[in-house]
User: Fold these one by one.
Assistant:
Number 1:
Amino acid sequence: MSPSPQPSSPQPSSPQPSSPSTGPVRLGPEAYAALRPTARATIADGFWAERRRVNAEVSIAQGPARLAKAGNLANLRRAADGETGGYQGWAPFQDSDVHKWLEAAAWQLGDPATGREAAAELTDHITEITALLARAQQDSGYLNSYYQVAKPEVPHFSEPLWGHELYTAGHLIQAAVALRRTTGRSELLDTAVRFADHIADTFGPEGSGRPVDGVDGHPEVETALVELARETGVDRYTDLARYFVDRRGGALPATGGKGTDRPGYSQDHAALREATAVTGHAVRQLYLLAGAADIAAETGDEGLRTAVERLWAEMAARQTYLTGGVGAHHADEGFGQPYELPNDRSYCETCAAIASVHFSWRMALLTGEARYSDLVERTLYNGVLCGVSLSGDRYLYDNPLHVRDGHADQEGVTPRRVPWFDCACCPPNVMRMLASLPHYLAATTADGTELQVHQYASGTVAARLPGGGGEVALEVRTNYPWGDRVEFTVTGAGDGPWTLALRVPHWSEDGWSVWLPSRNAPYSYADGWLRLTRTWEVGEVVVLMLDMKPRLTLADPRVDAARGCVAIERGPLVHCVEGVDLPPLPDGAGLDDLVVDTRARPRDAERPDLLGGVTAVTATARVRPRPAADGAGGWWPYRPVTDGVPGPAGEPITVTAIPYYAWANREDGPMRVWLPVI
Amino acid sequence: MSPSPQPSSPQPSSPQPSSPSTGPVRLGPEAYAALRPTARATIADGFWAERRRVNAEVSIAQGPARLAKAGNLANLRRAADGETGGYQGWAPFQDSDVHKWLEAAAWQLGDPATGREAAAELTDHITEITALLARAQQDSGYLNSYYQVAKPEVPHFSEPLWGHELYTAGHLIQAAVALRRTTGRSELLDTAVRFADHIADTFGPEGSGRPVDGVDGHPEVETALVELARETGVDRYTDLARYFVDRRGGALPATGGKGTDRPGYSQDHAALREATAVTGHAVRQLYLLAGAADIAAETGDEGLRTAVERLWAEMAARQTYLTGGVGAHHADEGFGQPYELPNDRSYCETCAAIASVHFSWRMALLTGEARYSDLVERTLYNGVLCGVSLSGDRYLYDNPLHVRDGHADQEGVTPRRVPWFDCACCPPNVMRMLASLPHYLAATTADGTELQVHQYASGTVAARLPGGGGEVALEVRTNYPWGDRVEFTVTGAGDGPWTLALRVPHWSEDGWSVWLPSRNAPYSYADGWLRLTRTWEVGEVVVLMLDMKPRLTLADPRVDAARGCVAIERGPLVHCVEGVDLPPLPDGAGLDDLVVDTRARPRDAERPDLLGGVTAVTATARVRPRPAADGAGGWWPYRPVTDGVPGPAGEPITVTAIPYYAWANREDGPMRVWLPVI
């Protein structure tokens, strides 16, 4: 379908949006990046508004109680009181759960939708925990309750591989930066700066000495240090971040394991500038790449830029599930071989999906290319959002794309949503992701001429465009991702021509249209960006229509796990079939016995009754008779090819596919994303 | 093909075989089992003779040096000297490597093919280590260098979940029984009995008290205790084994793990009598089932018999790879969901395949059904033998069925054969399996009327048939598994009619024939057993012809990992394609871009030059063009089904498939068992 210009129908203007502060990525005007994250977006209603309401009212609100129950706050109190012993939990990074909750609370406070009462409650918790952290901090600036309480005899930073000291420091810094940006409060930033200075004095090119040869086994401090530099204007932190990135690739001692070393688990197998594939622990890899992208943006380091572009492309093309989830291996929570994407044990850690969003968004800013925000969108709607229940109080750590018939006999293979984890990295990560979501919606170009909308949600978008237009603003109205229409009304026209750029998602590339504000308004389309440049008037409307027809999707044939299968998608949503939605099937057949008929078009099924209201998709399938097994007594599930494969038989069955993010919110049972067609 | 009686061509008789002692499973005449393992087989030449020669001359011969280097013997010396601290290795079960090597050496000594010099050398090592173990044993009978040296402060048997104390004791007992059976030496048996008595006094129905509630996290002692009872005639050990089996199902404390308990890892989630599926750690599950089968055979326990039959069927039909390998998950080295058999990360631990052979052989003896020995054969030739290099000095721990193009960038995903492991359970397990192999070749029926040949190898088979025939003997000549002909010559005719039963492998069920000793000799065939009953004369010959045509094999469609694929098999051998055998392919295509043409018959390719001499199989394939990826710039590996799948194109290519057991003996590269047909 070609874009079809249409006459505009002017809409009443709406009030200017409030101005949230710059989000998790701040780039100065001098940065070496195509875009600037200076647009200010709000989410007023619709899909994400509801998810964010639950995030604020349930997930974040329950955080302090969870952290108290799990012992995280008690650990910090013991550290503050100088007590040793009695550390609760096994993870040396327990503090990071607190820091991530603080960051989530900070972003939430920056959201104008946060009610006064909720804001007051959050502020009380933040004040209390911030004071606790300041008390727990040692005179040197060091702060880590695990090493202060559980391992006081161990020299700091001497267990780099598993100690997570820099990782935990990184989350503290991120929280402090967020709190400063949204509230202007600097107590936590003071604590973070003291710790960062201590780290810089200890490590790094200007350090007074390095107590250990290794670098932290879990990246995170890199991107945090760049953010701290952005917030404080102190370049030393960016230099230190670059130093940490460049230290990798041989610095860590081998970790061993069944006779083989595996420094790649912590991305210490090769210099990042030379690495050819994403490898090892997925969260570690992606936090490192996010940090490297930050450094490339700040410093113009071409070697790092080339590396992050190469590794992102490698990840997207060969290591990413349809849901945007990454990390195929349960063992090591890590990336697999190229195209190794098993559905029944897709690890797809919730945190890895979040890390992928962090990385992709930085790549979008660095390059201005739409595909990075394509992957951000896909990952947010599917690989991230599946990690939290619709109720907001139960989480998944790993996110499979297939749960089998008969799985119930098998212990531990069906992820079930639980309120918290012993290793509770994922829940507060979901909280900070959803709380900071508006920051991923829009950007401006470096030359200040263009306002780009990357993600679609009802609300407002505003920006200052120094290269043209000055202060400009839009109201966005949409029922996306259920509806196909996104309507933009100019509420701040600025004072000269400027460009409105709208991302056309890659799945809609051949099926979008636009209603222009006037019949002759010029526009262009290239590489995922629809651009309209004009002198705008308040009240002018642009409507982007996207292709929301349900579609059947194939994988590259090298994705063995999806051979002979299709997936159902609609808009940015990947769908799945859950056993609970199946009609009774003949002969004890189950979900794994169904074969989809690809000749029958999948259809929309609006289901306001289902899962909080979704547009489901129905498809046509038939039951595949179970083949006679081989061997006397039929004991063996393999048989000669000459016997052929029994084709599906019987009456066609209508199966309902729900959005993947909403699975596992009802009774336990089988689930499939990839549906056999043979 | 129907069986086709043929005239015999008498052969010269050969000398009576020597009489190896009863092997790893001894059943008395009163046992509740269909068969008795009393036949005596030798392997004189051919396939297994060569593998066993390498096992004896390289693997077993190198064992003492490996155990010395890895610190196992030093640990025992420290225990013997009463020293604490300085334990080498991390595994609490380091002693079991020593015990398993002793068991292997014992079986090897029982083999008449062991040369005098090698036997003397083995005997010296055995004498030395046996004395060391006796010295290390405490007055109580307890013997475990980990707890004696590394953890002297920990009460014995107080860490049941990970301590492996009973597991390690089990391997000591197995070694002692083997040594007694093949050499008559009882020093090690004395040590084992003292330890077993200590265990019986500590645990069990007649124990003086139970220091802990749990049972050992790793089964093994169960089958060892039954063997000890068989060797010593002391029923107490069998009672204790049954008690240990029946203790499972709630006795162990939960182990935790990301908020979920997982007692199933150690098969403590349900009483074995009630379990509906194999679950958890594969070796643990199968050693437990082997022990339960032993107990059922000794006691006639119908509940256990029903359970082991049910769980074997479940394992074979839904949890076993084509190679006989088991255990789909790297995490926990465990069973997966039903039909979850990923090829790229098939864990298929070498030890799990060996455990499967132990379990299946006991089931064969218990029931007399051919399918159990069908699985023994498949597992030995494929899932076990792949675990050791052709050179005998390098091992694989996990055995994937697929290594991908481009895997080289990924650390730790390509198993490479190594000389030894930090956790060295597999190497000595392979040694004892191959050393004891003759014991799995033949059996007699409980009524003493029938000599059964279960596995085919050139050599001799002899038995006493009290129900008919008395002392009878055969010579076996075959080039199996390369050749299709197995020739049996009667060398001991006995003194009355008896039955010769030959197993027809399930893959040859529709394509076998037999040459009978005379035109009118009666025979019957049912359920995998060809039976010839007659009054035999010395020199009479029976020739069994099996179907050695290469064949293409399909998996049950619920095995998602093999959808749209075929495997190549020939006789008992599963084949695979290794990258090193591919011709140059156009356009940078690799193994994962090939599509097999199933219309072209696979063909034998005798390759005396290859991998020590194999019959390879050639098949026809074409290169599948790589599809255009979706999205601007082609960054996304998924695309609309309406774009279709590109079919294979270009000239047909001949690919060579080698036997799977021989893979990874040349240069590193991709490998596939399941080959796409779409």
Number 2:
Amino acid sequence: MELYSEKINRLIEEFSRLPGIGRKSAQRLAFHVLNMPQEQAEGLAYAITDARRSVCYCKECFNLTDRELCPICASDSRNKRIIMVVENPRDLAAYEKTGKYTGVYHVLHGAISPMLGIGPNEIRLKELLLRLQQDVDEVIIATNSSLEGEATAMYISKLVKPAGIKVSRIASGIPVGGDLENIDEVTLLKALDGRTPL
Amino acid sequence: MELYSEKINRLIEEFSRLPGIGRKSAQRLAFHVLNMPQEQAEGLAYAITDARRSVCYCKECFNLTDRELCPICASDSRNKRIIMVVENPRDLAAYEKTGKYTGVYHVLHGAISPMLGIGPNEIRLKELLLRLQQDVDEVIIATNSSLEGEATAMYISKLVKPAGIKVSRIASGIPVGGDLENIDEVTLLKALDGRTPL
């Protein structure tokens, strides 16, 4: 026996394809949408098509945007000579939320992962090297602290250093507020290796 | 500094209004949608508008559907003389998934809650009483086991009993697989009160 009619099933189906949304959450979302005022549901649908249609990559940093340049690259108050390399736009957002970083970014859209068959050509590395032909003082590598992120960081540093540009890696260590006893050994050792003089 | 361009912000905003979706999940969903193939994103948007536009209440049981009668009320294999009263379509779905209930349903779309200002007229009670003027053998009250659910169950039973129709309430007790030591006292006492002869 089909529980719901076809269109409701289709909506549940569509929601359950989204990441982190299981069958049950999809059902909850679908019923929520069905109980929304009509304009609000249309608003959600419109936001999806509108954003998807107009979205493109910033031609400088490859952040997602709907203009030629993202707001960060278009801003005069950002230092274009410092480039932070991140794996994806969410990582950019995380750093941007600190409000303290005044340089610009470069979004790789992935990390090198031989396991998943992602090589240097599958991510936006060539585009980074092109950018480095302009005046750049420092490249800060802020890929994730995972196997893939570290491998990508090593790869980039080897490419960039010969050009005489300063390359740095964000610190690995104990998160602020972290309890030593709950932190894994690899992190503890990284924190020890990366100790700074007081 | 605006992190994303306007349309991306709007999409994140829309997603974060959905139940159980925080700011961070909304961002993840938005980026997922932006990375989808265009047709897939349009498919999601279309499913939302299409379902919302066409959805209505089943004129018998008030389940959500896109026809006059929901698949359950329209089916010949269901016993129309047994009506299970539930608070909302998700509860109906939960029972329907058992595959063992062969009667029909009545969806109240809420429960009586003086705290929230929801009285008997705000839920589909009048419609239930109208249905009881046809031949009905039993009304099974399957509202939630919360304060509001119990109050609604009591209220309905008082209304229905004088009509000479059998009224029952689904059992409250230890969930199957539940460990007695982890179960709250109210449930333990309910299970004791509701004990059945072996």
